[in-house]
Amino acid sequence: MTAITVRAPAKVNVGLSVGPLRDDGYHDLVNVFHAVSLFDEVTAAPADRLQVRVEAAPGSPVPVADVPVDDRNLAVRAARLVAARLGVEPRVALRVRKAIPVAGGMAGGSADAAAALLACARLWDDGGRLDLMELAAELGSDVPFALMGGTAVGLGRGERLTPLPTGGTFHWVFAMAHGGLSTPAVYAECDRLRAGRRVPPPEASDELAAALAAGSAKDLAAALHNDLQPAALSLRPDLRRTLDAGRDLGALGALVSGSGPTCAFLAESDRHAADLAAALAERGVAASTLRATGPAPGATVL
Ligand SMILES: C[C@](O)(CO)[C@H](O)COP(=O)(O)OP(=O)(O)OC[C@H]1O[C@@H](n2ccc(N)nc2=O)[C@H](O)[C@@H]1O
Ligand SMILES: Nc1ncnc2c1ncn2[C@@H]1O[C@H](COP(=O)(O)OP(=O)(O)OP(=O)(O)O)[C@@H](O)[C@H]1O
Q: Hey, whose CA ends up nearest to atom 32 of ligand 1?
C-alpha cells in the first residue's frame, strides 16, 4: 500500500437563497455552488494509528495555526467514518496541505473532508462499496459538493445536488480577511436580522442559471446573490469597505463568499483579475488576495 493524494476545490456560492429556520436547526437552501481552482491536498499514508498534520501549501498565504489537529478536524472525521463503514481500524497518517482560506466561507474544511473520504476509500480499497456522497452529507452540508465540483445547485441543507451547465470559464479574485467567521453564528445573525418577518421558501434564479449556461461574466455579475451577506456584514462591518473597493476598482460583480468573511470579485478576463488583485492589495482592504478560475473539478486522485 502506498500513499494516496487527493485534491479538492474551494467554492464560491454564486447564488444562496436561505429559507426559514427548520426544526433541526438547519435552513432549506437553494444553493448555487461554483468550484474554483484553489485546492487543498490531502495525502493518506498507511500508519500505526490515526495521525494528522496540517500545513500551508507551498507559497500559499493561508494561515493554518487555527486548524484543529484532533477529532474536530474534518479530514480526521472523514477517515474515521470510512474506517467505521468498512469495519477496519483507521491506521492512517493524514497530511493536509491548505491553500483554501480557513473559516473563510470557501468550504476549506469541507474540501479536506471530501479529499480524505476519497483518499481513505482508495487506501483501504473499498472496491466501490461505499456511497461517498452519502458519507459526505453526514460530514457537512458543503462536503458533497466538494466531491462533485463544477457548478451545481444544492437543495435541502445544500447536500442534494444537481449539476448546472456552464458555458465558459469565469475569472475570480478573492480578498481574504483577517480572522474568520463561524458559519452557525452567521446563520444565527441572518435569523436575528429577519426576526418578526415572514421568510419565504428559498428561490431559484432563472437569470443566474442562464448566465452560467451562457458563460457570460457580465450577466453572472448581475445575478450574483447571497442571502447571508447582510448577516456577514452585520458581524463584520469592515467588509463593506472591501466590497466597495472592488466595485470601485472595476470588478464586474462583488459579494461575500458563503458565510464570509472572504469577499469574491468577478473579473472579465485573466488580465483583468490580475490587475484587480493588485489594486485591491494596494488599497489595503484585504489581508491578502487570491486568484482562481471556475468551474474547477471536484475531488481528484493525483
Ligand atoms: C454557508 C455555506 O457554506 C454555503 O454553502 C453552507 O450552508 C454551510 O455549510 P457547512 O459549513 O458544511 O455547514 P454544516 O457543517 O452542515 O452546518 C454548520 C451549521 O451551519 C448552519 N446551517 C448549515 C447549513 C444549512 N443549510 N443551514 C444551516 O443553518 C447550522 O447552524 C449548522 O449547525
Ligand atoms: N481540515 C480543516 N480545515 C479547516 N478548518 C477545519 C478543518 N477541520 C475542522 N475545521 C474547523 O472548521 C472551522 C471552519 O473551517 P472552514 O475552513 O471549513 O470554514 P468555511 O470555509 O467558512 O466553511 P463553509 O464555507 O463550509 O461554511 C474552522 O474554524 C476549524 O475550527
A: 184
Residues near 153 by beta carbon (within 8 Å), at least 6 away in sequence: 30, 31, 32, 33, 161, 162, 164, 204
Q: Is 142 a catalytic residue?
A: yes
pTM: 0.97
Domain residues for the domain of 115 are 4-163
48 is catalytic: no
Last-in-domain residue among 131, 163, 195: 163
Residue 239 confidence (pLDDT): 98
Number of domains in the chain: 2
The answer to whether residue 302 sits within a structural domain is no
For ligand 2, the distance from its centroid to the CA atom of residue 74, given in whole angstroms, is 8
- Residue pointed to by grid coordinates 441543507: 157
Which ligand has the minimum distance to the alpha carbon of residue 72? 2
Q: In the prediction, which pLDDT does 126 show?
A: 84
Rounded to two decimals, the ipTM of the complex is: 0.97
105 annotated ligand binder: yes
Give the pLDDT confidence of 46-59 residue by residue, as tens digits. Answer: 999 999 999 999 99
* φ/ψ of residue 228, rounded to 5: -85, -10
Please check whether residues 149 and 27 belong to one and the same domain.
yes
Query: Would the annotation count 101 as a binding residue?
Result: yes
